[in-house]
Model the fold of this input.
Amino acid sequence: MNRNQFLYDAPKAIGGKAEDEDEEKEERPKSDIGMFSKKLEKYFFEKRAVYLWGVVDDKSAKDIVSKLLLLDADKPGQEIKFYINSPGGVVTSGMVMYDTMQMIKSPVSTICMGLAASMGSILLSGGEKGSRYIFPHGEVMIHQPSLGGYIQGVSADLEIQARQTKRVKEIGATILAKNCGKTVEQIMKDFDRDYWMDAQGAIQYGIADKLIDKL
Done:
């Protein structure tokens, strides 16, 4: 090895060692985070609590439904607490959660922490009657479903999409009417625009039952 080659290779060797040390430092926090997550999951499992943070989609539906089924199988008939902070999302994903809540043996109490909008409001309303809670500054919003995005296509396709939207709107209105003690016609009317409610308004509307002031 000549002198020039050594001088060229030396920084690589030194750099490689430094990189290894950096990787070790990075691995430790990741390991700590992983341990904390496992402890958190165990804590929530013992408390029989599930959380919906963010949008309703297939990923969140899989997570929530899996936990509901697991908790129900673990102790059938015992209360499960479902905390919600969601702007809504995919209707079909939300309906999977909603139907699971209704079919399991364990009663599900729902708690709106910050926001229960769109599909989130239907999930909130689907909790056990008398056990649907809302935080003091929680908000609820109901509205008709949207096809989303830029709609285009032949007239026949547009008609199909319009019929599907109308069908989903009627399903949502029927569910809320049943859970809130209102008529389908009233819900359909309120669906015409984004209908916002504060905590007390949500209780008066019938989507929630009680204000929660202690966890």
Observations:
- Residues 3-47 form the longest helix (45 residues).
- The two ends are 70 Å apart (CA to CA).
- Residues 1-44 form one domain.
